[in-house]
Amino acid sequence: MKKFFGFGNEEDKFDPNRLKINLKMAVSRIRIHQNKIVNSVKAQRRALAELISVGKYDSARVKVEALMREDVSLEGLEALVLFCDLVATRVGVVANSPGISSSKKEDSFSSVGPPPELKESISSILWSSERVSGVLELATVRRQFIAKYGKQFVGSCIANSEFAVNEKILDRLGMGVPSNEAAVRYMEAVATEYGVTFDLSQLSASMGGTKPCDTLAAGTNIDMHDVLASIDTPHEEATSFPKSSTRFVTKSGFVIPPIVKPRDELEGRLLALSRQ
Predict the structure, then answer these.
(1) Stretch among 78-92, 153-167, 187-201, 237-251 having the lowest mean pLDDT
(2) pLDDT at 201
(3) What angle do CA 82, 23, 114 make, to 5 degrees?
(4) Residue 104, C-beta contacts closer than 8 angstroms, at least 6 positions apart
(5) Contact in structure between 260 and 252 (CB atoms under 8 Å)
(6) What is the mean pLDDT of residues 186-211?
(7) Phi, psi for residue 213 in degrees, rounded to 5
């Protein structure tokens, strides 16, 4: 009705201030979400250790996968915070980049898009907006990018059709199932953390005699950080990433140069997240 009388819808117009405010609010909301996950992970680790202590290895093996996904998601959320901060800091660059207009059709997709240095950040934010729950501001951010660059661009980012989403974001916030070896290593690390005896033979018996992991040696000291770093969460899209040391040209001809020398402190932190 508002559009009929010519007032328009504010959500349909790109507003740099609205984009920046919602990115900052998203960061605050993600921090709150991280704290909730930390408390949840602590409680689940304690419960997992209790199951292992009473010999319920089958139940522990079932519950460990969801626990691992929550645990590794903390790293993904931390990377998402960095990207939100970067785009909020450079919202002026976004505003000055070529976008759609009322006189243009969205089929001229190759002529619009963010600047190359923000391509990965914006793509990662849009991809995460469909997968991170509880952060309502990301939906507003997504609508702002639709108003700026069009639905086709946003859709390609959500589907990661141009492989521009950061690999750590894909791995840590995706729904990939961790490997059996990683799950067993995580269980053993939790048992070590709480001083509980972990018996691989009992776990093998609870799995019908199948060896849970051939590479684990009994009595090996395992660090939780090393376990999380080695978790294998296969993702089809992540296997096609280019090396960060080379220039990458997307399907639409968009050139994404690598970050070789950071221009500020924030870009220096993002350099650690570059695709490898």
Answers:
(1) 237-251
(2) 83
(3) 80
(4) 112
(5) no
(6) 80
(7) -165, 125
